[in-house]
Amino acid sequence: MRYSIKDYVKISDNNTNNLINKDSSYNKSFMLLTKIIDKNNNIKKKTKKNKNIFKFILFHFCFMSILIIWANNLYSPKTLKEFLFRFYWSSKFSNIYICTHRDFDNNLTSPVYKILIDEKSQLKQEYNLTIIETNKDNILYPKRLAYAECSKMYYIWKLYKKGKLKSKYVGFTHYRKIFPFKDDLPDLDEMFKYYDVIVKSRYIFEVNVREQYNENHIGHFLNESLDIIKEKFPEYYQPALSFLDKKYANFANVFIMKKEDFIKWGEFVFGVLFELDRRYNITTDEDVMTLLIKEAKEAEKTNKTLNIDFQRRLEAFLSERIGNFFYERHFKKIYEIPTV
Fold it and tell me: N or C: at which end does the chain have fewer Cβ atoms within 10 angstroms?
């Protein structure tokens, strides 16, 4: 009987299958060979996948290199880091807050700057900066006129104290008092190697700070603050007396300091002001006005006139002096810079 090639192949396959079924050792060898082949196929697939990942990484590396070269032509070296790490820089390195109650002219674009406002509705124009409302969950909101920028500073201070904000440096400016470097931010790590704090340039008086306050404000509130400091913060009492004898001061609550120092600043400044409010039973701006009307009547007896609308920023004026008490005790090297 003659067989075709197809018949031989069929016979061969049948013989092989019979052999596999009858010979267990052959069967095991065949299964082992199958596993080896499958393993090699998996290795090939994995190698192909790794090659694709490598191509993906290489593509993005080239893309980032082109982006860096392009950005370097647009930005100065100081701001290039901020451009590339926009969100990391603003949240982890430094935050500078602008306290305002209305629109203001600015050309700021750096995400380091953030606007603090009681309510967003107070702003009519568009800004490229983060806007933070400070009226929510803020115990100083009912006294925001008396505390002025400090009501907004308290809102931020509380977040840092609770650990919800964690930037390395914290700064504050006003809508009319912006740091001159604006978007061209200095290397703060380098600056703080030589200085302990950055503040607005000093005001110089013809009299000492105590006399200047007494001439322009209601003197016994400052005296009461000193009594509170002597009682509750005795380590600050002598620095406070030393500062009051000087003929200059860094007012306006405009500064940049390390996060740890800012937390201590708030504990001291707000600690004194809150105790003052408690002693005079001040819970709202209306309470301040009632107190000032009474003070104005007393002043008339000595032929002194008080501008109540001006004096209503009672705690804000005191905070500027109390803040300097803090500088006097904590900082040896102060970098003063004018604002624009």
Answer: N
| Spans of the chain below 70 pLDDT | 1-51, 55, 60, 62, 64-92
- What is the C-alpha to C-alpha distance for residues 310 and 316, in angstroms, rounded to an integer? 11
> Angle CA(150)–CA(322)–CA(317) in degrees, nearest 5?
55
Are the CB atoms for 325 and 187 separated by under 8 Å? no
Best CA proximity match to 239, nearest among 230, 247, 231, 252: 230
Query: Strands 255-258, 197-200: parallel, antiparallel or unpaired by DSSP?
Result: antiparallel
* Pair 151, 270: CB distance under 8 Å: no
Q: What is the pLDDT of residues 8-32, one digit of tens each?
A: 444 444 554 554 455 555 455 555 5
Distance in angstroms (rounded) separating the CA atoms of residues 146 and 167 = 28
User: What is d(CA 84, CA 88) in angstroms, rounded to the nearest whole number?
Assistant: 9
Q: Would you list the domain boundaries of the chain?
A: 5-73, 203-337
Rounded distance between C-alpha atoms, residue 282 and residue 184, angstroms? 42
Q: What are 119's two structure tokens?
A: 């309510």
